[in-house]
Amino acid sequence: MFGASLLFWSTESLMCSSTLIQMTSLNCEQVGNVRKNIFLAYKTLGVVFGGLVTSPLYVYPSMNLSSPTEADYLGIYSIMFWTLTLIGVVKYVGIALNADDHGEGGTFAMYSLLCRHADIGILPSKRGYSEEEPFLHEQSATAIRPSKLGKFFERSITARRVLLFMAILGMCMLIGDGILTPAISVLSAIEGLRGPFPSVSKPVVEALSAAILIGVFLLQKYGTSKVSFLFSPIMAAWTFTTPIVGIYSIVRYYPGIFKAISPHYIVHFFLRNKKQGWQLLGGTVLCITGAEAMFADLGHFSKKAIQIAFLSSIYPSLVLTYAGQTAYLINNVNDFSDGFYKFIPRPVYWPMFVIATLAAIVASQSLISATFSVIKQSVVLDYFPRVKVVHTSHQKEGEVYSPEINYILMVLCVGVILGFGGGKEIGNAFGVVVIMVMLITTIMLTLVMIIIWRTPPVFVGMFFIPFVIMEGSYVSAVFTKIPEGGWLPFAVSMILALIMFVWYYGRQRKIEYEMANKITMERLGQLLAMPEVQRVPGLCFFYSNIQDGLTPILGHYIKNMSSLHTVTIFVTLRYLLVSKVDQRERVLIKRLGPRGVYQCTVQYGYADNLSLKGGDDLVAQVMRCLKRHIAMSTDRRSSVSTEEEIANLEAASLAGVVHVRGKMRFYVGDDAGCFDKVMLRSYEFLHSICRSALPALGMPLQQRVEIGMLYKV
To answer: Where is the signal peptide (predicted)?
Structure first.
């Protein structure tokens, strides 16, 4: 009896101990997650919020104020407070961060999300090169019946094209933001020299600003990993010192500033100023500059980290800083043209000048890096013509550099500084792209709510109507600034969007043609059975865009060359919606029907490095995987033994390696539609001036062969 009791007691103790260990482990894991999110939130200060938190440098100087009064300043602060609250807190932190696509954010991520839940892509072939991909089966299995709006987009090719162009335009306007943010941030910071030294002329400030930006752009090729650890401390210093100055200014100049939080100050502001008040929205919109980065940079950080950083530091910092600036200006109504440096107390002027300049440089770097990242992902996903992309860090997968894009950005940024001359003039150009991106995001979010989330119409209306009215008012105001400089970023964004749309459309028409005219295994057997066709020694990598069947260029190649290598591997590059693919899953091999013919799928994530240089190149990877596949395969379709098949593979490799890539060109006839004529001829021009895909894979020039083929439209 005693033994039984002891056994029961021991068992119960073990169970309690096990439960306690599990609870302790769970608590440790939760504490670890909290610490990780806090650390990531700290890092976001130097990457995500650079443009947003430095906006006090140029918001007030960008406004065209005329004899402002205390009531005007209270109304302006009320507008800025509610803009930051509604757009920053409610829209982005509360709603948009939940509309991610596999952890990625931005307008294009929402478009990808919509395409996976409804048949609204321009061409169905884009969503899958292979009908057997489990990933696509998983997506289709989880998809629910389309809504009425989803069915409308499925039926209307025009609506689908407009939706794609809108998503592309939103992404391109972020690049337009990358042109103006470095220019206005650095110029506004350096203009602080003119306060203590009035003799410093405006051209000197412009030259210094341009020199700093040129230096920043010339250093891009070395990467930012060596100095990136300074970014967050610099932005943290800026984020926490400016509100301290703001609190000092509030106490000294206007302690009752927070009464302006009441929305009735906004109503009185517009009733009193009418048209001029509406035009001033073009300046106040700059207070939310950079908020889109919260969503666009979601892939680099976690949702929780961005929410913690914004709500605990960025939002309070901006509210207090703008309150302090406004309090100072109420007592010094005509100092708005230098609204930041004038409200800085003399004893801390130079430390704040240094911090402001460093923060402006970090904000510039953040936008430049974001632009490189957007371009790289667009190239990887085949939405942008191929440009050179270099990974500048082995540790940080997202740290990339593009020489062509870098120098184009440098020329445009320096041109903006020298051409516009001042922060006020650049501010006129700035507001257009800022609010357009936000309006596009609102429209895309509404579609996500209706088509994917199936949000009740009442809640959709509660989101859509207020934000469209508010952002539509901002858009109508900033459009009046297009003749004053707003045309530049708008034109750059439209040109980039057209380039991306043309490239996307052309690439998809090619894939559509290849899928419709693909060569089956039976047809390949017939081609190889022709008496004039010989199997020549060597190893051939034949690149294709499709997996179900073989590219039609193969038939063109065999008929003209009357030969095929003894070992031919059809290679398809497949991009997955993940950042990096495990090396063990990188190369997938499949044996095809004829002897010595294989299919190889090389899988990449959007952050993987395609420049396969060094000893471990693509050929070595594929050869290792192919030998392993042959050794482990139980599917013996021929009488050749495993040892003989591997020996044939090694002999072919020793005989020589060749990389064959088809170069299909469009022949646009007179009977083609007007849309196809414009789009496909434009695509052919872009294709003729962009980089080849094979150099990006590090293939030696002497091993590359390109086969041309015309496709009549």
So the answer is: none
The shares of helix, strand and coil residues in the chain, as percent rounded to the nearest 5, are 70, 10, 25
Q: Can you read off the two tokens belonging to residue 544?
A: 């294709």
The predicted structure's pLDDT at residue 268: 93
More confident residue, 266 or 625: 266
pLDDT in tens, 617-663: 677 888 888 888 888 876 655 567 888 888 888 898 888 888 888 88
What dihedral angle (degrees, nearest 10) is formed by the CA atoms of 708, 710, 711, 713? 140
Residue 612 burial (10 A CB sphere; 0-12, 13-18, 19+): middle
CA 46 to each of CA 36, 363, 444: distance values in angstroms, whole numbers, following the listed order: 16, 8, 28
Q: How far is CA 316 from CA 98, 112, 241, in A?
A: 22, 34, 12
pLDDT at 394: 58
Domains of the chain, by residue range, sit at 46-126+157-485, 518-712
- How many whole angstroms separate alpha carbon 354 and alpha carbon 271? 41
CA distance 575 to 92: 28
3-state class (DSSP) for residue 144: coil
Q: Check whether 551 has a pLDDT greater than 60.
A: yes
The answer to whether residues 328 and 342 touch, using CB atoms and an 8 Å cutoff, is yes
CATH topology (fold) of 46-126+157-485: Amino acid/polyamine transporter I (1.20.1740)
Q: Which amino acid is at 226?
A: K
| Per-residue model confidence as pLDDT tens digits over 470-527 | 999 999 988 888 887 778 888 888 888 888 888 888 888 888 888 888 888 888 888 8
Kind and range of the H or E run holding 213 = helix 202-218
Q: pLDDT tier at 291 (50, 70, 90 boundaries)?
A: confident
| Amino acid code (one letter) for 169 | L
